[in-house]
Amino acid sequence: MQTLKQFQSFFEWVSASISTNSQKVENGESEASQLSDLPPPPPEINLVDLTKK
Fold first, then answer.
1. How many CB atoms lie within 10 A of CB 30?
2. Cβ-defined contacts of 10-19 (< 8 Å, 24+)
3. The whole model's pTM is what?
């Protein structure tokens, strides 16, 4: 059951991120280029920054 909630949270975040990015483009702004430009991910999601060396 926990896995189902994690998937649901993830896809809600993806949808919110797409919506945020679409609104920025629609308003004439540039697309989100950093994670900080998007809504925060759910706490169940562990993001890995692959840009750091």
1. 9
2. 10/41, 10/42, 10/44, 10/45, 12/42, 13/39, 13/41, 13/42, 13/45
3. 0.66
Model confidence at 1, pLDDT cuts 50, 70, 90, reads low
Locate tokens 């920054």: which residue? 49
Cβ-Cβ contacts under 8 Å for 52 (sequence gap 6 or more): none
Q: What is d(CA 53, CA 5) in angstroms, rounded to the nearest whole number?
A: 32
To the nearest whole percent, how much of the chain has pLDDT over 70? 94
Q: Which two tokens stand for residue 38?
A: 């998007």
Please give the DSSP secondary-structure letter assigned to residue 37.
G
Sign of the four-CA dihedral 26, 35, 18, 15: negative
